[in-house]
Amino acid sequence: MSQNDFLFTEETSTAEEPALAASPWLVLVVDDDDSIHQITTLVLSNFSFEQRPLQLLHAHSATEAVTIIQQQPDIALAIIDVVMETQHAGLELVKTIRQTLNNRRMRLVLRTGQPGEAPEEHVIRDYDINDYKNKTEVTAIKLKTLLYAGLRSYRDICIIEHHKAGLEKIIACTTSFLQCSSLKQFASLILGQVAFLLGLEREQIYCCAAINSAATDSLQLDVIASNVVDNNALPPDVLAKILQVQQDKTSYCGEDCFIGYFTTHRGNENFLYVSKGSKLEQTDHQLLSYFSHNIAIAYENIRLRELMRESQRELSYILGEAVEKRSKETGSHVKRVANYSYLLAIKAGLAEYDAEVIKLASPLHDLGKIAIPDHILNKPGKHDADEWAIMQQHAELGYQILQHSSNEILQMGAIIAQQHHEKWNGKGYPQGLSADNIHIAGRITALADVFDALGSDRCYKKAWPLAQIIELIRTERGQHFDPALADILLNNLDAFLAIRDAYPD
Ligand SMILES: [Fe+2]
Ligand SMILES: [Fe+2]
Asked: Could you say which ligand is closest to the alpha carbon of residue 362?
C-alpha cells in the first residue's frame, strides 16, 4: 500500500461490516403488563440503528423505572405505560424524569391501553414527549418506526450537546491563548489543550503543530509544539502525511489521524497533526479543525507581540547604550541594569508583567545625559559645584524627554530617569523624595545602577572588589537604598553575579 493509499482510505462503513460491537442503544420499557414486555422484546430482537444494537431494560412500575434511570442515565428512549401502580403513574414518571432527575436527553413515548387516558396537551409540550400511542395501534412496523425516530432524535441531541461542550472548550482554549504571552508558553498550551478537547490525558495523544513560513517555496517546517519529535526531527511517517496535506492544501480527517491545514493572511501554512490510540470520530475532527484555525491565528498574534517586545527591548538598549557611549561607559551596563532590575522586581514580589516593564524601561535611566555638555559629562576626576549641579540635571532632563509619551514603557522610563538618584533617606535628587514616596521602579533602578557602577571601571574610578561592594550596600541599606531591596540583593548575590558574568564589558 502506498503512502497515499494509507492516507486517504475513506472512512466508510458498509452494510457487510460486522460493526455491531459498538455500545448498544439503551431502551427502557415501562409497563405493568408482562405480555407487553414479551411482545416488545420479540419485535425488536434483531433491531439495530447505525450499526449499534439495542439493549432493552424492563421496569414493571414507575418506581422501578426511576431506580433504573438513576443507575443508567444514558438511556436513549423510554416507552412508558400511563396507568400502572396508580392511574397517572406514567405521567408522574415523566415529570420525575424531566424535573427531578433533570434528564432532558432521554426520548419519551407514552403508551396506553385506553384512549381516555391520553395526557393533556401541556404535558406533551412541557415534558418534551416524543409520541403518544394507543397499545392497540402499535404494530411491529409502527414500533420500529417509533424506535428509529426516537433514537435519531436522541442521537442528534447527543451530537448537539457534544458540540456545545466542544465549542465551550474551544472558547476556553481561545481565552487562554489570548492570555498567553510567549511562544514557549503557547507551545505547552497546545499539547494540553488538544488532549483536553479530546477528553484525554496528554500522554494519550500524539500531537505536533508546525508552521511552514510563506517566505520559503519548499516545505521547511518550524515545529512549535510537539510530543512526536525525535532528535529535533518528525518521524518519517508523520512528515510524509504532512507533506501530502501540504500538496493537497486541505485538512485530512482520517480514522488514524487528523492533520489540520490552515493558511493565515500572511501566507504561512499551519499544520496540526493529532493521533490517539483509538479511532478519531467526526466530532473530534470538527473540534480539532476549529482548534487548528485558532492556533494559526494565535501563533501570529503571539509572534507579533514577541517581535514588538523584542524591538522595544532592542530600542531601549540602543538608546541607553548611545547615552552610555557618550559618557565613555560600556554598552553592557544598561543590559546588566535591566536584568538586575527585573530580578529585584520579581524577588520583591512584583507581577511578571510589571517586572518586564521595569526591565525594558530601566536602560533609559540616564537618557537625560544626552543634554549634558561633553566637557562636564566626560570630565575625569571630581566635578566642581557648578558642574555637579549641571550633571544632576540629567534626571529631570530624562524625565522631560520621556514624560509625554503614552507608551507604557517610556512612561516608566520617565519615572525611572527622574527618580533613580533619589535616596531612601530623602537625601537624593532632584526632588529629595524618601522611602515609599520614591516609585518602586526608581528604588529598584537606583540599587541596580549603583551595584553595577561599583563593579565596573569608569573614567573616574576603578572597579571595586566584591567584598567592598557588599560592605557599601550593607552600610547604605536604609540610607541610600530601600532596605528590603538591599536585602534581596545581598541574599541572592549569586544570581546577581551570574547576570554580571553573562553581560561582560
Ligand atoms: Fe544617572
Ligand atoms: Fe547608569
From this structure: 2
Cα-Cα-Cα-Cα torsion 498, 469, 485, 501, nearest 10 degrees, comes to: -10
Report which of 486, 440, 466, 451 is spatially closest to residue 333, judged by C-alpha positions.
Answer: 451
How many residues would you count in the chain? Answer: 505
The pLDDT value recorded for residue 329 is: 67
Total Cβ atoms within 10 A of residue 122: 8
C-alpha cell read off for 269:
501554512
Question: Which ligand sits closest to the CA of 392?
Answer: 1
Q: Of 3, 10, 7, which is closest to residue 259 (Cα–Cα)? A: 7
| Domains of the chain listed by start with CATH number | 25-159 (3.40.50.2300), 180-301 (3.30.450.40), 327-502 (1.10.3210.10)
Distance 125 CA to ligand 2 centre (A): 78
Q: Give 291-348 pLDDT, tens digit per residue.
A: 888 887 888 788 878 888 888 888 888 888 888 777 766 668 999 999 999 999 999 9
Q: Which of 133, 369, 379, 462 is catalytic?
A: 369
**369 is a catalytic site residue:** yes
C-alpha 111/C-alpha 149 separation (Å) is 16
Residue 311 CA to ligand 1 centre (angstroms): 24
Q: How far apart are CA 123 and CA 93, in angstroms?
A: 12
What does DSSP say about strands 107-112 and 131-134: parallel, antiparallel, or unpaired? Answer: parallel
pLDDT in tens, 48-107: 999 899 999 999 999 999 999 999 989 999 999 988 998 889 989 999 999 999 999 999
Amino acid at 436: D
CA of 362 to the centre of ligand 2 (A): 9
Of the listed ligands, the closest to the CA of 366 is 1
DSSP H stretches of helix in 96-182 = 121-126, 140-179
C-alpha dist (Å) from residue 133 to 52, 96, 285, 414, 419: 25, 20, 40, 81, 85
Query: How far does residue 453's CA lie from ligand 2's centre (Å)?
Result: 7
Nearest ligand to the C-alpha atom of residue 453 = 2
Ligand 1 center from residue 427 Cα (angstroms): 15
Residue in the block written with cell 427502557: 28
Q: Which residues contact 121 (CB under 8 A, 6 or more apart)?
A: none
- What is the per-residue pLDDT for 18? 38
> What is d(CA 360, CA 412) in angstroms, rounded to the nearest whole number?
9
Mean pLDDT score of the chain: 86
Q: How far is the CA of 395 from the centre of ligand 1 (A)?
A: 6
Q: How confident is the model at residue 239 (pLDDT cuts 50, 70, 90)?
A: confident
C-alpha 191 to ligand 1 mean position (Å): 47
